[in-house]
Amino acid sequence: MVTRLEDKELKRRSRRQLLKLAPVAALGILAFPKVSDRLVAAGVRFSDWKSGGLFRSQHLAPTFSDSEVVAFAKFPYNYYDVLDPGVDLEKWTLTVAGDVQRPGEYTLAQIQALPKISQNTRHICVEGWDVIGSFGGARISDFLRLVGANTGARFLEVECVDDYYESIDMASVLHPQSLLCYEMYGQPLDRGHGAPLRLQMPTKLGYKQAKYLDTIRVTNVLKPGKTGYWEDQGYSWFGGL
Amino acid sequence: MSNEEEHEERNREARNEETTDTAPQKESAPGAEPDAVEATEAKVETLAEPAPAEPVVEEEEPALVRAAYEHPLPIRITHWVSAISLFVMVTSGLRIFRAFPSFGPKIPEKVLLDIPKSLTLGGWLGGALQWHFTFMWFFAASGVFYVAYQAISGHYRTMLFTPRDISGVWPMARHYFFFGPKPPATGQYNPLQKLAYTSTIGFGALSLLTGIVLYKPVQFSWLALLFGGFHLTRVWHFAAMCGFLAFIPGHLIMVLLHGWSNFFSMLSGWKREPEYQE
After folding, report:
1. CA B46 to CA A123: how far, in whole Å?
2. Is A34 an interface residue toward B (CB < 8 Å)?
3. Whole-number Å distance between alpha carbons of A87 and A191
4. Domains of chain A in sequence order
5. How many CB atoms lie within 10 A of CB B198?
6. pLDDT tens per residue across span A55-111
7. B25: nearest CB among A3, A27, A75
8. Which chain A residues contact residue B234 at CB under 8 A?
9. Which residue of A36, A239, B86, B223 could cross-link A208, Cys pair, CB 3.0 to 4.6 Å?
10. Are the Cβ atoms of B28 and A3 closer than 8 angstroms?
11. Least CA distance to A48: which residue of chain B?
């Protein structure tokens, strides 16, 4: 709508309106890395907090028919250090610690004695690729019951034979599709995929699903700077899908 | 009557209107609402003068400048917040894409395009994700607020592309590419501008919805179906960015060509001597 104003009046109004926009200029502080580092760290914390709120403990991830599963040879091996950390499969046990009634060493046979879940789910990597794979294992929730874990605790920490480490919120751990996985494609987990035991959680990104499990710990407190191998370098801690 | 004569004629008419009838100006522009108080104050001052007594003297008052309050404050704020967010989302998004620059399978991985590091933000995948996961909130909030404001204020009428604008797109495009006369300016935006600005809302909505699916494919698995599944959603997300990348250079070139007063209007809201008449 065109109006007619004295030049002075137009300038006065323009100036007033320009000043109202001044707060947006404050975004200029983003140019300073010290500020932006803290801002984006806070942004990820905020996103993680929102993600935790979005998570529904009974909402299942999509599952797929056998014909939709990608060939085993096309399921990528991903690792951060070595593909095969040389686990002694004969002597391997899972160490259980923390807020549990029956801590100690558990054998693969004890885990395999729990009800077996087989599921074809999508494995999504933070890099952007995804594959539909076939997995088998015991529900983590069943195992936690076996060891008498306090499932009211906030986190499950895991340590791996290859020194990888992770921590996961208890709600995601207790999800019915969250497995202690010892099988892929109907075969015992091979060394590259994390033999003898890995986490398999279709509600989490790949880097949360630690391989070559060595120790799990139920806890209410995470050590700062020791929440996960990639998380400590900047990945989202929640990593939920 | 030539074009210029017509302009003059309309100018004169407009001035007459202003001196004889003040009501329409008072109710002017829903877009001018943030200034409503000021406008009313100004009106009170002029009304206080014994205007009807000496209309001739009034005509001799200092020259008036034609101006339009084009961009209300919410539009200007969301424009700049979106611009900054979009810059961050595109540059960090390209860095994220670099981690797996393909839409095919991981095995065998076919690199679609190698994006130079210098065009990206974040330094590495984790850093880029931090920027992306932070500015997605600003981008989304700004977009949702913008659309809500446009819808509620009615200001969208200045920019929304409607079927009536279709016929005007080609003449305008022809003019911009130097082989056609300039179509007369009828409103704040020409049909091609309306098409461009309306498209960006579409790109924004697409990037937001596909982004939700990529961020939470399990929680929003129903939304993934809308885009043909998780895998295809990544393609749509990329396509939305391509839409923005197609829009931005043209937008910036036009801003450069139209000079300071046009650019300044997105900062101050007021445009001096707009091309259009009413």
Report:
1. 71
2. no
3. 8
4. 58-233 (3.90.420.10)
5. 16
6. 999 999 999 999 999 999 999 998 777 888 888 888 999 999 999 999 999 999 999
7. A3
8. 128
9. A239
10. yes
11. B133
User: A110, A20, A178: which is closest to B71 by C-alpha?
Assistant: A20
Q: Which two tokens stand for residue A131?
A: 């594959």
The per-residue pLDDT for range B167-213, each reduced to its tens digit, is: 888 888 888 887 778 888 777 888 888 888 999 999 999 999 999 99
Helix (H, G, I), strand (E, B) or coil at B204: helix
Question: What are A10-62's pLDDT values in tens digits?
Answer: 888 888 888 888 888 888 888 888 888 889 999 999 999 999 999 999 999 99
pLDDT attached to residue B19: 41
Neighbours of B83 (CB within 10 A): 15
The secondary structure element, H or E, covering residue B203 is helix B191-215
Which residue is listed with tokens 């990529």?
A: B214
Strands A116-124 and A130-139: antiparallel
Whole-number pLDDT of residue B145: 95
- d(C-alpha B239, C-alpha B203), whole Å: 8
CB atoms within 10 A of CB A175: 25
Alpha helices in chain A (DSSP H): 7-20, 22-25, 33-54, 108-112, 140-146, 170-173
A3, A70, A127 ranked by CB distance to B68: nearest: A3
Burial of A112 (0-12, 13-18, 19+ CB in 10 A): middle
Domains of chain B and CATH, by start:
3-66 (no CATH), 73-271 (1.20.950.20)
φ, ψ of residue A240 to 5 degrees: the values are: -95, 155
Length of chain B (residues): 278
Per-residue pLDDT, B56 = 52
ipTM of the complex: 0.91
Helix axes B125-153, A33-54, angle to 10 degrees: 70
Contact B278, B74 (CB under 8 A): no
Inspect the interface and report whether the beta carbons of B42 and A240 lie closer than 8 Å.
no
Render pLDDT for A130-165 as a digit per residue (tens, 0 to 9).
999 999 999 999 999 999 999 999 999 999 999 999
**Residue A192: burial class (beta carbons within 10 Å; 0-12, 13-18, 19+):** middle
**Whole-prediction pTM:** 0.83
Task: Write out chain A residues lying below 8 Å of B77, CB-based.
Answer: 21, 24
